[in-house]
Design brief:
The chain is mostly loops. Helix content is 7%, strand content 5%.
């Protein structure tokens, strides 16, 4: 704050000649008018007082030299100055610009004088002063007599412009001045700093809370007379502040932008400590990045108001709502949703964002602001690597019901029931606001076969329904809509035990391992639980895929249909294909018709409905039904004519049901089992063995 300059020019000793002096001549100043002169509303011959403002302009121990500031030569006045005139200095207080009293350098004394004022005087900051002998100035109302309250230049507190931030924080009254200047309002003579003009410069210091120090770059322009308007334009006094708390990153470091007096800073928080994730310079101190700029893990970034709700706006964390809580020398922590912060230990307690997810459950250790980043198990499920909630199960449907241990074997399993919160189990889904929102959000992933497209969750009863993992696609089952927290026992809760399908007819628990090798020998548990409730029925023990080693004849229709139900959407294995709806793997080889109960060649070769010598005769263009030369009229004979006893099928691994492995043209020529002695499997020719003597004919 600029020093307030002296406001009043002495009015000299009105009507000195009229004083009632004691016998003999006056010998000292106080004999006539007091030293300094006594201020009175009228000429008081008893006290010697007269109109003026001398007392408010002079120190308590005034000497004659003090009078010379306004009355040239008064320091050596003799008796002859009592000449009925008042002599004024032609440059009051030795101001840089000639400072004059409005009545001139001398004027006649009178008992009822008309008072004047001064102009350009340094002690009034070169402003025109109030009328001499006016009402005494008061603080803080009269501060504006010499300079604005606050001054209107630079970044002095204001309601708009470069000083608005200072005005918002410290107000625009006299109390704002003490942030950078001495508190003159608390001094015995509040305006003494003005009358000291010419003896010192402006006093600038950064010692008021929250500052404990700092420097200013243009201190030379704060010295006398440089600070006066006539000597230095206000803009030339605009320097920069360094090492002040009020313009720092809030953690002991420098501000992001060096503040310039009279300049402007970014409208958001990036000028000092950095802002939220949407700003040009997100805050980097402490663990702020993990909270306000970590959407890859959090799904969405936290607002600053999440932890500073009484300082910045909730929903608009760039808007400062309570300046008193900002730049106050302390960290004002106030959590949305409750919680406390220990400023000594730097730990959070009972916050929504660092809780087990249920208020009644045991809570995790208080996270430290100086600690390492946390994973899922930093808040819930602290006893396991995935963060699977591990509090004791309170029972079916209870407040602390907990069936997580039965449902989670890998982190990704979390997404089965919380797909709108996470898709990986290790990070929150991008854009999701369901994490740390104070609610338990169950959203079943109906696109996953382990859940099923018709699955539903009823929060009120904590119940699942129509879920694949509890037998929605299977027959039987006693508890297909389980309550969370319930204890289920036995395979029969989800499906019949054994399942109520024809292929399971007559089976008992110990038979399960015969088709399902991941089931234990007793049929009551698993040797490989990953193959249970995995979206597929793992029945590799029943037959290999493709089924190349089935017995002869092929199984009856009912046996295949137990798993491959004809055109059934609920069949545990895919339904067979038209026209015979046999097992899909079978039809990859049995291209002519289904193999059910067939002991001849007609399911792999020939045309539907063929009989006699045409039964099983190849008619197609692809293996295993390539016609080749079979279609020639002279070859319409029994298969055994060329293939001997093989024409009715073989079980010795060379043809028929015992030889279903797909083959190439070369291996096929060997496996056709032609018994003609002239057959050459390499050239695929039969020589001249036939009665028709057509020569050596290439078969394919």
């Amino acid at each position: 704050m600029r020093r307030m300059m002296t406001r009043h020019v002495p009015w000299l000793l009105a009507a000195l000649m009229m004083l009632a002096a004691p016998a003999g001549a006056a010998s000292v100043c106080s004999d006539c008018h007091g030293m300094p002169p006594i201020d009175a509303p009228y000429r008081n011959i008893t006290t010697g007082g007269f109109k003026g403002s001398h007392r408010t302009h002079q120190p308590a121990g005034v000497v004659a030299a003090n009078c010379a500031i306004c009355h040239t030569g008064s320091g050596s006045y003799g008796m002859d100055h009592m000449n009925g005139k008042v002599d004024m200095s032609s440059n009051i207080n030795n101001s840089p610009v000639a400072a004059l009293y409005s009545k001139g350098v001398f004027f006649n004394q009178t008992s009822n004088p008309v008072m004047g004022s001064c102009a350009n005087v340094n002690c009034h900051f070169e402003r025109t002063t109030p009328v001499w002998a006016g009402a005494p100035l008061t603080v803080p109302a009269s501060c504006s007599t010499c300079h604005g309250l606050p001054p209107a230049d630079g970044s002095h507190p204001s309601l708009a412009g470069a000083g608005k931030k200072h005005g918002d924080y410290y107000g625009t009254g006299a109390t704002s001045c003490i942030k950078c200047h001495p508190d003159h309002t608390a001094e015995a003579k509040p305006f003494a700093h003005a009358s000291s003009a010419g003896n010192r410069g402006l006093i600038l210091r950064f010692t008021a809370s929250p500052n404990t120090g700092g420097t200013y770059s243009k201190t030379a322009n704060l010295g006398y007379p440089a600070y006066l308007p006539s000597q230095t334009p206000a803009a030339n006094r605009n320097g920069t502040c360094t090492a002040t708390y009020c313009h720092s990153d809030g953690a002991g470091g420098a501000a992001k932008t060096t503040p310039t007096w009279g300049g402007t800073l970014p409208a958001d928080c990036t000028g000092c400590h950095g802002g939220n994730s949407a700003t040009s310079a997100p805050i980097l101190t402490g663990l702020h990045p993990q909270h306000v700029n970590e959407s890859a893990l959090l799904g969405t970034n936290f607002d600053c108001a999440r932890c500073h709700s009484t300082t910045v706006g909730v929903g608009n964390d760039r808007a400062l709502t309570t300046p008193a809580n900002h730049v106050n020398g302390s960290k004002t922590i106030s959590f949305v949703g409750g919680g406390t912060y220990d400023v000594t230990a730097k730990t959070c307690t009972a916050t929504l964002c660092h809780s087990s997810g249920k208020t009644a459950a045991p809570q995790p250790a208080a996270p430290s602001w100086a600690g390492a980043a946390l994973g899922c198990n930093g808040c819930h499920g602290t006893s396991n690597a995935f963060g699977t909630p591990d509090y004791a199960n309170g029972g079916a449907g209870a407040a602390l019901a907990n069936s997580h241990a039965k449902h989670v074997s890998v982190a990704a399993d979390c997404a089965l029931c919380h797909v709108n919160t996470t898709t990986t189990g290790t990070a929150i889904k991008a854009g999701s606001a369901l994490h740390t929102n104070g609610a338990i959000d169950v959203s079943l992933n109906t696109t996953d076969t382990r859940v099923g497209t018709t699955a539903t969750w009823t929060a009120a009863t904590k119940t699942c329904a129509n879920v694949y993992c509890h037998g929605a696609t299977l027959t039987g089952g006693t508890t297909k809509s389980p309550v969370w927290g319930a204890t289920l026992t036995g395979c029969g809760t989800c499906h019949g035990f054994p399942p109520a399908t024809s292929v399971h007819t007559g089976k008992v628990a110990t038979d399960c391992i015969g088709c399902h090798p991941h089931v234990n020998a007793t049929g009551t548990g698993f040797t490989d639980a990953t193959k249970h409730i995995n979206g597929a029925i793992d029945a590799s023990g029943g037959h290999a895929v493709p089924y190349y080693t089935h017995p002869v004849p092929a199984p009856a229709t009912g046996q295949c249909g137990g798993c491959h139900a004809n055109a059934s959407a609920t069949a545990p294995y895919p339904a067979g294909t038209a026209p015979n709806y046999t097992a899909p793997d079978c039809r990859s080889c049995h291209v002519a018709k289904g193999p059910y109960g067939v002991s001849d060649c007609s399911s792999c070769h020939g045309a539907a409905g063929a009989t006699g010598v045409n039964l099983g005769r190849p008619t197609g263009t692809t293996f295993p039904n390539i016609a080749g030369q079979h279609g020639k009229g002279d070859h319409r004979v029994a298969c055994s004519t060329c293939h001997g006893t093989y024409g009715t099928g073989r079980t010795d691994g060379t043809h028929g049901p015992g030889n279903h492995t797909p083959s190439t043209v070369t291996t096929r020529a060997t496996r056709v089992n032609v018994t003609l002695p002239t057959w050459n499997p390499t050239t695929r020719t039969c020589g001249t063995a036939c009665n028709y003597n057509h020569g050596s004919k290439t078969w394919y």
